[in-house]
Design a protein that fits this description.
The protein has 363 residues and is α+β, with helices and mostly antiparallel strands. A hairpin with a 2-residue loop joins strand 9 and strand 10. The protein has 11 helices and 12 strands. It is globular and about 65 Å long. It has a 12-stranded mixed β-sheet with strand order 1-2-3-4-5-12-6-11-10-9-8-7, with helices on both faces. Helix 9 crosses helix 10. 28% of the residues lie in helices and 31% in strands. It starts with a strand and ends in a 17-residue tail after the last helix. The chain folds into 2 domains: 148 residues, Aminopeptidase (3-Layer(aba) Sandwich); 194 residues, Aminopeptidase (3-Layer(aba) Sandwich). The longest helix is centred in the last third of the chain and has 14 residues.
Length: 363
């Protein structure tokens, strides 16, 4: 018999304060993610954010949701993003994922959004016939070198053959030679920040004010202060018990003002997680896209990233002009799903997202 247990934001404190956390066989949330959920400025202590499926006393599945606000014709509406789903291999295809979804529907009155999901999760959503695509973004991955990693946030290979093949391909990879000649124009200067000032925050809000969730400077500071990942260069004993990225070898975020001829022309929020480099948020005019793309590429080169993942069309178009700098390029598509009931409420709203919206700024 399967039972579903619920945990609120307030009750997540047990995971932060439990000193025996590392002794559990399976963790439904990492300590970093729990702390971030508790600090979410758009959540309240009574919001249910974790759903746990038990077969008697055994944890056999879980799903978390991220509280947010959607602006429906200018009016704020409390919503939740699906974020993180797992079912024990011995209990799959028994309807557990659907039971967890049904519990979420009831608590959140069908006000559910989803993006950045794994293929198996999409199959579950399709099976329920309760989700519809409300927006799509076409993206790209620009590979600086080859990788056969099992997970892009860890350096674990499935077998020694793939490890050897990766090393061989990268040994004869000519693209670093081309990238070594890339320089920023002399009239372009960068200024780095650990936390955004008023000027950066204003630019951030200008690029988010037309999106569905309209994040403010408050949410930006939350994203920067409470990331879901923590660098663990020598490995973390808890991370293998949680089935989502939480402890990559390296993790950093860079907040950058960009100047040309002493004039501020934009900002970039760059995130580097071990092998991957992303740009969750950015602001610039189209005529400055080229220099912004150069800055992104130079960061990827100097941080030894394996690939750059983007959904911003201006940055993507500019990086395509640097094809010889990359080993290969693959196209991507990100779908944003909504429950049918919420989609009906959103039909007259502007549906637009930035790369970092939903939970994408965290993973």
């Amino acid at each position: 018999m399967i039972t579903v247990s619920r945990l609120t934001v307030k009750e997540l404190a047990i995971f932060v304060n439990d000193t025996s956390l590392a002794d559990r066989n399976i963790l439904p949330i990492s300590r970093q993610r729990a702390m971030s959920f508790m600090a979410n400025p758009r959540a309240v202590s009574s919001d249910v954010v974790m759903y746990l499926a038990y077969s008697f006393d055994e944890l056999v599945g879980y799903r978390t949701v991220l509280p947010d606000i959607a602006y429906v014709e200018g009016v704020p509406l409390k919503v939740a993003w699906l974020s993180g789903s797992w079912v024990h291999p011995n209990y799959r295809r028994k309807g557990i994922a659907s039971e967890l979804l049904n519990a979420i529907y009831a608590d959140w009155d069908q006000r559910i959004l989803s993006s950045n999901f794994a293929p198996y999760a999409k199959k579950v959503y399709d099976k329920t016939h309760n989700f519809t695509t409300i927006s799509e973004s076409i993206g790209a991955r620009f590979y600086l070198k080859s990788t056969f990693l099992k997970s892009y946030n860890y350096c674990k290979h499935e077998n020694s053959f793939k490890f050897g093949l990766e090393k061989t391909i990268n040994l004869f990879n000519p693209t670093p030679i081309f990238r070594s000649f890339l320089k920023l124009p002399k009239n372009v200067e960068l200024e780095y920040y650990t936390r955004p000032d008023d000027e950066l925050s204003t630019l951030f809000e200008e690029t988010t004010n037309l999106t569905l969730t309209g994040r403010s400077r408050i949410e930006w500071n939350w994203i920067l202060r409470f990331p879901w990942m923590q660098p663990a260069p020598l490995g973390d004993r808890v991370a293998p018990k949680y089935f989502f990225a939480s402890a990559p070898q390296s993790f950093n975020q860079y907040i950058i003002k960009v100047y040309r001829n002493k004039e501020l022309i934009g900002m970039l929020h760059i995130q580097h997680s071990h092998t991957r480099l992303t740009v969750p948020y950015c602001y610039f005019e189209p005529e400055n896209a080229k220099v912004m793309a150069q800055i992104v590429l130079l960061h990827a080169r100097n941080l030894n990233a394996t690939f750059i993942a983007l959904y911003n069309p201006l940055l993507i178009n500019e990086l395509y002009l640097y094809r010889r700098f990359f080993l290969w390029i693959t196209k991507r598509k990100r779908e944003y799903l909504s429950t049918n009931k919420l989609a009906e409420r959103l039909k007259n709203s502007v549906i637009r997202f930035n790369d970092g919206d939903g939970d994408c700024a965290f993973i």
